[in-house]
Design brief:
Number of helices: 13
Strand order of the largest sheet: 1-2-10-7-8-9
Distance between the termini: 37 Å
Helix content: 40-55%
Largest sheet: 6 strands, mixed
Strand content: 15-25%
Number of strands: 10
Shape: globular
Radius of gyration: 18 Å
Length: 333
């Protein structure tokens, strides 16, 4: 964590986060926290760690993304909503934007990656969205912007901007209330929307709590951005954690990560698979790979720093089909 520069973005405050939570509360769940003491033969945790799971994978739409999507939609005026909304996503954000649009009585036209999990595509359609496909993240973002210009739709960014990040800040607000004595919190990073909002509130309400981000080795845009001192884009994404495969970091969320996050560590896909299997076998949770990344970090690069600590993990989502889930479990053997 570093001191904010003079041009630091305006962070969510606890008061503004509470206002946001009150706005979106009718359409979301206050997801539970569960203490988890796994069998040592299933997950090799740091010595003396006391582990708690923030179960955003039980959130409506199956991921935390609904918080930011709803906040964008509910802040929009009637004329904007009449024209509808658009978004780009590998899946979870598209599902959440479709859900938010339906809740507000408007339409959604979303761009999904051609590699998107079929279960996510089906769920997005079930919420009434019109779907287009793009070959990669860069072309997907370009098409979203084109749709916004052509149709006059509100473009809802998956991880950037105040409305999105103030939505994700409500995860931090809940964690701070549910686990007031937490010593460390580990959060997965895709583009940085979840961790920037969550860390902003946790650090303001519990300054002594360490906040760590975790990225896959094959999708490390935030780690590279922190090293470079500015947001950077990736030439290639290669990870099983498709929800963490953002093609670039962006200024607002990056600025908050640099201000409020203590460190960002990297994990290999094999470690994510092993963590996914541990969550299934012992915690009895069906998680997507992004949700398993924090556990992989606790058992790997954060092990020494978390010994004897009271640690929270944000499990971000559970939108995965049975075949893919089974493939990951078998590969972890």
């Amino acid at each position: 964590m570093t001191e904010p520069p003079a041009t630091s973005p305006r962070p969510p405050t606890p008061a503004r986060s509470r206002e946001t939570l009150a706005r979106i509360a009718p359409w979301i769940e206050r997801t539970p926290v569960r203490r988890w003491i796994p069998d040592p033969g299933v997950a090799s945790l740091p010595a003396g760690v006391d582990l708690f799971l923030k179960l955003e994978l039980f959130q409506r739409t199956g991921s935390y993304k609904v918080r930011g999507a709803l906040n964008n939609v509910l802040l929009a005026d009637a004329e904007t909503l009449r024209r509808g909304v658009t978004a780009v996503s590998a899946g979870n954000h598209a599902i959440s934007v479709a859900y938010a649009a339906r809740a507000a009585g408007t339409s959604a036209k979303v761009v999904m990656l051609s590699s998107a999990n079929p279960a996510r595509v089906a769920r997005c359609r079930n919420f009434g969205a019109e779907i287009e496909f793009a070959d990669d993240g860069a072309s997907g973002f370009a098409r979203m912007e084109e749709i916004a210009r052509e149709d006059g739709r509100l473009a809802i960014h998956p991880f950037e901007g105040e409305a999105t990040v103030f939505g994700t800040s409500t995860v931090g607000l809940e964690v701070a209330g549910q686990l007031p004595d937490l010593e460390a919190l580990v959060v997965p990073i895709g583009g940085g929307g979840l961790i920037s909002g969550t860390a902003s509130i946790v650090k303001q309400l519990a300054p002594a709590c360490r906040v760590y981000g975790v990225e896959p080795v094959g999708a490390d845009s935030m780690r590279r951005s922190l090293d470079a001192g500015e947001p950077v884009a990736l030439d290639r994404i290669d990870t099983i954690a498709d929800s963490l495969g953002a093609p670039h970091a962006a200024p607002y969320s990056f600025g908050l990560v640099r201000r409020y996050v203590d460190d960002v560590v990297l994990v290999e896909d094999d470690a994510i698979r092993a963590a996914l299997k541990a969550l299934f076998l012992d915690a009895k949770l069906v998680a997507e790979p992004a949700s398993a990344a924090p556990l992989a970090a606790v058992c790997g690069p954060l092990r020494e720093r978390l010994e004897g600590r009271r640690v929270g993990l944000v499990l971000s989502g559970s939108n995965i089909d049975l075949d893919t889930f089974g493939t990951h479990l078998r590969a972890a053997d």
